[in-house]
Amino acid sequence: MEKKAIREIIFTGKVLYREGLVNSHAGNISVRVGDSILITRTGAMLGYLTERDIVKVPVYRESERDREASSELVVHRAVYRKTDYTAVIHAHPVNGVVLSFLVENSFTPVDNEGRLFLGEVPVLSPNLPSGSQELAEAVSEFFKNSGKNVVLIKKHGSFVAHNSLNYALKLTSDLEFCSKVYITLKGSGYEL
């Protein structure tokens, strides 16, 4: 199970990078396997991951290996502690980040696929957005209580949680596409 999860994380990192959903050393990916989390190493280049870039840490306690893991481990761990999700992707999709500056609390995609697969996308605005306990609490509570899989963090990026890493990747890609359509239409003067 772990070997398969590691292969999926490596594949997902390549796609995120090739699709421009993360820049060279940004973003992180994790999969829950039992009471463990497999998560990308801090500073890893998602487009070029190897098995050495995946760190195994416990879900329910801190460990020595925590410092090797992504700085967003606190968020991933909180999501796994509070939900039944088994995969989390944190990305920095350019159009999604831009959109987070333009809307207040949420946005609803204007394209049909976006409405079907994403619906309304909330935008959270924690004071400490990167790798903080405040962000971990905001994101994990959101996923616990909303029944949704996608959230934007104002001025920062997206978190997607699901029970399939591949589907979380799809939703991350959908978010970027819908954000680009929204921004392009808004810039053209189209009434949204």
According to CATH, the homologous superfamily is: Class II aldolase/adducin N-terminal domain
Tell me about the largest β-sheet: 8 strands, mixed
**Outline type:** globular
Order of helices and strands: HEEEHEHEHEHEEH
- DSSP strand tally: 8
How many domains comprise the coordinates? 1
Query: What is the typical, i.e. mean, pLDDT?
Result: 95
Distance between the termini: 45 Å
Question: How much is the radius of gyration in Å?
Answer: 16 Å
Per the CATH scheme, the topology name is: L-fuculose-1-phosphate Aldolase
How many helices? The count is 6
For the record, what CATH class applies? Alpha Beta
| Oligomer category | single chain
Structural class: alpha+beta
Query: Which percent range fits the helix content?
Result: 40-55%
The largest sheet has its strands arranged as 3-2-1-4-8-7-6-5
Low-confidence stretches: none
Identify the CATH architecture: 3-Layer(aba) Sandwich
Beta-strand percentage range: 15-25%
Explain the overall architecture.
With 192 residues, the chain is α+β, with helices and mostly antiparallel strands. The protein has a single domain, classed as L-fuculose-1-phosphate Aldolase (3-Layer(aba) Sandwich). It is built from six helices and eight strands, in the order αβββαβαβαβαββα. The protein has helices at 2-18, 73-82, 94-102, 112-117, 133-146, 165-188; strands at 28-33, 36-40, 54-58, 87-91, 106-107, 121-124, 150-153, 157-162. The chain has an eight-stranded mixed beta sheet, with helices on both faces. It is globular.
